[in-house]
Amino acid sequence: MMQSQEFQNEVRHDWSREEVSALLALPLNDLLFRAQSTHRRYFDPNRVQVSTLLSIKTGACPEDCAYCPQSAHYNTGLERERLMEVDAVLEKARAAKASGAERFCMGAAWRSPSHRDMPYVLAMVRGVKAMGLETCMTLGMLDAQQAGQLADAGLDYYNHNLDTSPEYYGEIITTRTFTDRLETLDYVRKAGMKVCSGGILGMGESQKDRAGLLQSLATLNPHPDSVPINQLVRVPGTPLADGESLDPLDFVRVIAVARILMPASYVRLSAGREAMSDEMQAMCFFAGANSLFYGECLLTTPNPEASRDQRLFARLGINSEAIAAAKPAVKTPNTEQTLFYNAMAF
Ligand code: SAM
Ligand code: DTB
Ligand code: SF4
To answer: Quick one: which atom of ligand 3 is closest to the CA of 111?
Structure first.
């Protein structure tokens, strides 16, 4: 990543709602050109960061997030699972590393971690870190002490999303506030960890709400290091199961504006890729997305198969050093696999 003074001056934290709305409303070609130009000043345009997700505690969450299959308020048929054993988590992390992940993200369906669970969670961080993987966790709200403990254990990133605009937030979640979320992010930052924070599109929000989410993220100082943009995965049983589908080009616009507003941050094309065409994902990368979740499962819902992503990367000439390094030795020529791996030998 380029870090020169000239470019650092471009990183602003005073974006107004009007400026963000105006960017969202640009003709698409102008918006994409601007986003891609910005992207190239900070990042290798053909390089995508790859993370793997694991649900370490699944379902029965006391919160009422309207999008979430893990909320105990809705009947989604999800089987609840207690906090995983530390060794089982480490085994999954080892497999993720072998298949090319650079960062291992662990998620728990909690409002916040209990003091009883913290020692296990801290042991997971230490163990995954010792494998040479970057670590990320998303465990709900934290207090200052918990943030400090996670930082001391070596946690690199904490994910806690703003999810939507401050105005629309109350339509989606009633069991905790937008301000609670900002407070957790503050503890995370003050404890010295990197912040991963983004939102979800396709929940019936307006263009104004999208501007509100982006403005809220881009006025954090410093910006989140990583900004996941999720497309709602509609899960039967949740209140948002039957909403109107999102215009794919509106999703691309949000990625592009996130790139312009937070030029030095990783923008992650996050949940919802299973429902996206290769062509839509290609547009997202052009708009400045440079990170994704790799592996067949998100937390509880499907993600594209690794082979589909490998083929996508090869089609686009995208370079993921970790995935290339993890490729198996190919002995038989003329197979589809060989062709693929040849294409990946950059
Ligand atoms: N319980 C913790 C919390 O909410 O902070 C951590 C896990 S929670 C599942 C992490 C994030 O996943 C949420 O903030 C939300 O942005 C995203 N998410 C959950 N369900 C989703 C869905 N159906 N579609 C897209 N994103 C979703
Ligand atoms: C984020 O923004 N997206 C990921 C991660 N952070 C934890 C989670 C997506 C979850 C999608 C629904 C599921 O699989 O349960
Ligand atoms: Fe619980 Fe997190 Fe799902 Fe909300 S998003 S219901 S806090 S697991």
So the answer is: 7
